[in-house]
Amino acid sequence: MVATDLSVRSEKALLRAAALAKRFACPWHVAYVVDEDQPATMAEQEAIQVKLLLEARLVELTRLAGNAPKIDVEKGDPNQRINQLAKEKGCDLLVMGAHRKSVLRDIFVGTTVERVLRASELPVLVVSQPPAGEYRDLLLALDTSPTSAHAVRTAAQLGLLEGACKRSVCAFSPMAKGMMEYAGVVEEKIDEFVSSETRKAVDDLKAFLRDEQLEDLIDEQLVAVGLPTSVLQRMVDKHRPDLLVMGTRGMGGVKRALIGSVADYALRELDCDILVVPPAKTA
């Protein structure tokens, strides 16, 4: 399912969804949710106009995807109804356009994409780039947690790893380095400490990939020193991946609002398509 608001940003997501539907020869939906927080007559008029606009594109969308999408125009709270619709229709993937950045507004209420992500039980593909072919260069963000392992497996189950170069990156920050620098420890000793911690991080990553049976899904394994947000920024700038795959811890409420998350940072700052996968359901 691709959720659209008929913006230029949503158009990129719509075209990507059509390309995925064609690649996997699967049924697909185009959803538009009319915000019900307006006079009923205006909401009804908007619903009618949007349905006509989307139906006018059926021939084009069918040609692009190889099959006609189901068009769903509903009324409700977009942040809630988008997730409900995707679940009701039995979709495997929700596709959305990256929203325009609005710093002050985003700090306090978040974008629609972020609010949908926080409630979604489905993986969400956030599209920021015009489709220029299939995803061929993937960056997999790992943190040796079950959530990041689940994200990689989900991408594989969706078929997104097939035929692509899969490069994983795991960030680590040797916390004692700053204290050693503050205490005046000589640079040589600090370098030795960082090298030792790096070797340990590499061993930990290898053990994680082995235990989670992910080794065969990844072509290149990288460990980088730095905070996760800084490492991801560097990797995206250097490798220009078509798609970043990452999990989210599903943290909510005041805690998330105060400290943010790597997924929030990626959505706000990184200029690439991002597959965000929620934690696996627990029994």
UniProtKB/TrEMBL annotation:
InterPro entries noted in UniProt: Rossmann-like_a/b/a_fold, Universal_stress_UspA, UspA
Entry keywords, A to Z: ATP-binding, Nucleotide-binding
Keyword ATP-binding attached: yes
Pfam families in alphabetical order: Usp (PF00582)
Domain UspA: from-to ranges: 1-127, 135-278
Top-level taxon of the source organism: Bacteria
UniProt keyword Ribonucleoprotein present: no
Family: Belongs to the universal stress protein A family.
Protein name: Universal stress protein
Organism of derivation: Pseudomonas schmalbachii
